[in-house]
């Protein structure tokens, strides 16, 4: 019997080893290598593949559009901008690798990215250590900009987003019992859930049950069954679209007929593809509503739709926004020097962007309001706007 | 109580999928003493073949008109996926395992891991790494019995799994090839001396095991809503643990092991914490290897030197 046992154990060890080795890095879309004279190189690291591939791809489209528009107007400081995008595959070790590579091999002056907070934390630590300014378009976890004085963002932060949905659930929907289903492997999801819980309890509501899952799970029937046994009027699911879509269908299938509430992690066309009819009637907070916006953002929506054949998501808008803030800062810095660019980003004041007016505060976060969108017939529609 | 019964129903349907995959592990191990780590990927390819076959047969059109997909087309999807997986299984056996069959036991094991990684990455390249929503091959009907929700999908999963397992049992017990398989698992050299074409029988074993995994893949897609190219990794490992739990080499053991693992996972997720749902499977593996390494229904075989 010993032989059998040994084969099994060695087999398992070998699988573990092999899966560790298989995680090699794969640059997705690098358009060249070292910086040439007369060019300002901007790096973007994003999940171009993997379970959050839509995040990276949408953001990259926004970034790319902003860079191309700036180049069409003659570039910045008399030089052309060059964008290098590296894939993180949604993995935090890859994110750190990508930022190292952008700095060492591509010689970038500034870095944009990532979408996911866990990945921005990993990449941000590298950027901070190497003193290269980084602007995260969409990482909403507060810890991201706490990494250091070189790390900025152009989106609101989790405590605010969690608070927005709590206020919305309590005041607009008049709910007093809500369940939470959070992704425990994800800093973003945990941050939103904590903020929601505090704000909802403070507003006089009760969290009836708190359930969890791990990113990559495909079976949610146990959690949904547990929530169905309570009097919850809604479920707050601050996760990412692929899991949220599956959760919505599982809830529908198991007869849990309450709206789901969520954050900007829902923002992807795949949410409607996976969730189907089951996701209708749910609400999520976001940075940007394409159906109500200013003249500047209307122009952006038109250009984006023309170039890519589909309307931008909030992520596309924020990718564009982050690139605009960076380009504006490079202009004001007056030279292609990372620390001068950092100072100029920190001094951004009343910058008219596509998602609102941006002033970077002392914590390197912008001050701006959030929108709440309602899912109706496979589309996200503007419901209300909630200010800080 | 309602909640408990609901978790049991969920666990049994997940467990029958594990059981279908576990059968492939156990059959191959029974004959070749090889843990076919690529089996989880055959399951994945089976699910994707079903996905594309359903697409080619126009499932989107039926969905758009909110009509049910005709049953005969659903069966056709199942058959196409099972046939494609059988072909893949035989190809893997021919290209990767046959050349190293007489090598030390660790060699084919490493080859199996190589094939598994190759298929995972090929899957990401060919099918895109994004999770895909599984088409509604079976339109959903819901019943409520004393507050417990049962869908026709869950019932179909039991029924299909049960039929296939019963069919396999009859095949192994009643047919000539089945008898040859049992002979091979008893002693491969003696079987060859008795005039059995061992290559043919091994090929048949891979074909049948892979076809069952493909059926599991389609049922998994229906049950879990989305599929992705890495779905075979963890599901395959869990099914492997199910095979070990039941007694590797034993067909009824694989079925019982699969159902037990499904139930253990679902009850852990429902009552302990969803974070332990994957861990519990491997705790079971460690316990069974320490306490009863031959598994619940396995036979202790002494290896003579």
Write the layout of secondary structure elements.
The complex is a heterodimer of chains A (388) and B (305).
Chain A: H1 2-21, E1 39-46, H2 53-72, E2 80-87, H3 92-104, E3 110-113, H4 117-129, E4 134-136, H5 143-146, E5 151-153, H6 158-172, E6 177-183, H7 187-202, E7 206-213, H8 221-228, E8 234-236, H9 241-253, E9 260-262, H10 269-275, E10 283-286, H11 295-308, H12 314-333, H13 338-346, E11 351-352, E12 357-358, E13 370-376, E14 379-386
Parallel strand pairs in A: 1-2, 1-3, 3-4, 4-5, 6-7, 6-8, 8-9, 9-10
Antiparallel strand pairs in A: 10-13, 11-12, 13-14
Helix pairs in contact in A: 2-12, 3-4, 6-7, 9-10, 12-13
Chain B: H1 2-32, H2 39-56, H3 59-64, H4 71-97, H5 106-127, E1 132-133, E2 142-145, E3 148-151, H6 152-174, H7 176-186, H8 188-193, H9 198-224, E4 226-227, H10 231-246, H11 251-272, H12 277-291
Antiparallel strand pairs in B: 1-4, 2-3
Describe what you observe in this structure.
The complex is a heterodimer of chains A (388) and B (305). Chain A is an alpha/beta fold. Chain A has helices spanning 2-21, 53-72, 92-104, 117-129, 143-146, 158-172, 187-202, 221-228, 241-253, 269-275, 295-308, 314-333, 338-346; strands at residues 39-46, 80-87, 110-113, 134-136, 151-153, 177-183, 206-213, 234-236, 260-262, 283-286, 351-352, 357-358, 370-376, 379-386. In chain A, the strands form 3 sheets. Chain A has a 7-stranded mixed β-sheet with strand order 7-6-8-9-10-13-14, sandwiched between helices. Chain A has a 5-stranded parallel β-sheet with strand order 2-1-3-4-5, sandwiched between helices. A two-stranded antiparallel sheet of chain A has the order 11-12. The radius of gyration of chain A is 22 Å and the shape is globular. Chain A starts with a helix and ends with a strand. Chain B is mainly α and 305 residues long. Chain B has a single domain, classed as ABC transporter involved in vitamin B12 uptake, BtuC (Orthogonal Bundle). Chain B is 73% helix and 4% strand. Chain B has helices at 2-32, 39-56, 59-64, 71-97, 106-127, 152-174, 176-186, 188-193, 198-224, 231-246, 251-272, 277-291, and strands spanning 132-133, 142-145, 148-151, 226-227. In chain B, the strands form 2 sheets. In chain B, strands 1-4 form a two-stranded antiparallel sheet. A two-stranded antiparallel sheet of chain B has the order 2-3. In chain B, β2 (142-145) and β3 (148-151) form a beta hairpin. In chain B, α1 (2-32) packs antiparallel against α9.
């Amino acid at each position: 019997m010993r032989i059998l046992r040994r084969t099994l154990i060695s087999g398992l060890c070998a699988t573990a080893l092999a899966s560790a080795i298989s995680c090699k890095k794969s640059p997705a879309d690098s358009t060249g290598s070292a910086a040439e004279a007369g060019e300002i190189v901007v790096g973007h690291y994003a999940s171009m593949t993997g379970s959050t591939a839509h995040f990276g791809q949408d953001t990259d489209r926004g970034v790319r559009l902003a860079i191309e528009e700036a180049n069409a107007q003659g570039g910045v400081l008399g030089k052309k901008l060059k964008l290098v995008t590296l894939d993180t595959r949604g993995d935090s070790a890859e994110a750190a690798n990508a930022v190292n590579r952008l700095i060492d091999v591509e010689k970038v002056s500034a870095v944009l990215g990532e979408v996911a907070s866990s990945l921005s934390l990993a990449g941000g630590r590298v950027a901070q250590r190497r003193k290269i300014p980084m602007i995260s378009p969409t990482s909403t976890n507060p810890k991201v900009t706490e990494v250091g004085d070189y790390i900025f963002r152009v989106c609101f932060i989790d405590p605010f987003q969690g608070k927005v949905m709590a206020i919305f659930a309590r005041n607009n929907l008049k709910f007093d019992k809500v369940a939470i289903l959070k992704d425990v492997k994800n800093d973003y999801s945990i941050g939103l859930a904590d903020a929601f819980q505090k704000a909802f309890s403070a507003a006089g509501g009760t969290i009836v049950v708190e359930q969890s899952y791990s990113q990559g799970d495909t079976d949610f029937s146990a959690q949904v069954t547990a929530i169905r046994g309570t009097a919850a009027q809604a479920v707050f699911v601050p996760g990412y679209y692929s899991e949220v879509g599956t959760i919505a269908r599982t809830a529908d299938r198991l007869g849990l007929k309450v709206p789901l509430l969520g954050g900007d992690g829902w923002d992807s066309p795949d949410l409607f593809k996976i969730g189907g009819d089951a996701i209708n009637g749910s609400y999520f907070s976001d940075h940007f509503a394409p159906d109500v916006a200013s003249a500047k953002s209307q122009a952006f929506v038109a250009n984006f739709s023309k170039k890519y054949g589909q309307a931008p998501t909030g992520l596309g808008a924020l990718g564009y926004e982050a690139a605009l803030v960076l380009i504006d800062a490079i202009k004001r810095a007056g030279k292609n020097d990372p620390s001068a660019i950092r100072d100029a980003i920190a001094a951004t004041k009343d910058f008219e962007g596509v998602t609102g007016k941006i002033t970077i505060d002392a914590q390197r976060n912008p001050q701006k309001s959030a929108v709440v969108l309602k899912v109706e017939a496979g589309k996200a529609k503007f419901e209300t706007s909630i200010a800080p | 109580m309602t909640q408990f019964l609901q978790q049991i129903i969920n666990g049994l349907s997940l467990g029958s999928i594990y059981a279908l995959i576990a059968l492939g592990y156990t059959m191959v191990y029974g004959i070749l003493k090889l843990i076919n780590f690529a089996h989880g990927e055959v399951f994945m390819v089976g699910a994707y073949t079903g996905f594309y076959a359903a697409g080619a047969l126009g499932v989107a059109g039926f969905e758009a008109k909110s009509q049910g997909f005709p049953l005969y087309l659903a069966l056709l999807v199942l058959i196409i996926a099972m046939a494609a997986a059988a072909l893949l299984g035989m190809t893997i056996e021919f290209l990767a395992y046959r050349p190293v069959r007489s090598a030390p036991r660790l060699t084919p094991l490493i080859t199996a891991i190589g094939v598994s990684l190759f298929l995972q990455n090929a899957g990401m390249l060919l099918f895109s790494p994004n999770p895909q929503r599984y088409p509604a091959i079976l339109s959903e009907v819901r019943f409520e019995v004393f507050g417990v929700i049962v869908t026709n999908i869950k019932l179909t999963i039991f029924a299909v799994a049960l039929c296939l397992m019963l069919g396999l049992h009859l095949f192994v017990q009643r047919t000539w090839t089945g008898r040859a398989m049992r002979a091979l698992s008893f002693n491969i050299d003696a079987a060859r001396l008795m005039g059995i074409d061992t290559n043919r029988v091994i090929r048949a074993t891979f074909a049948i095991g892979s076809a069952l995994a493909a059926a599991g893949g389609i049922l998994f897609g229906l049950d879990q809503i989305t599929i992705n190219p890495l779905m075979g990794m963890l599901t395959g490992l869990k099914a492997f643990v199910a095979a070990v739990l039941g007694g590797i080499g034993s067909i009824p053991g694989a079925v019982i092991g699969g159902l037990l693992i499904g139930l253990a996972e679902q009850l852990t997720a429902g009552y302990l914490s969803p974070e332990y749902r994957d861990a519990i499977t491997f705790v079971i593996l460690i316990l069974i290897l320490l306490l009863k390494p031959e598994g619940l229904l396995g036979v202790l075989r002494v290896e003579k030197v």
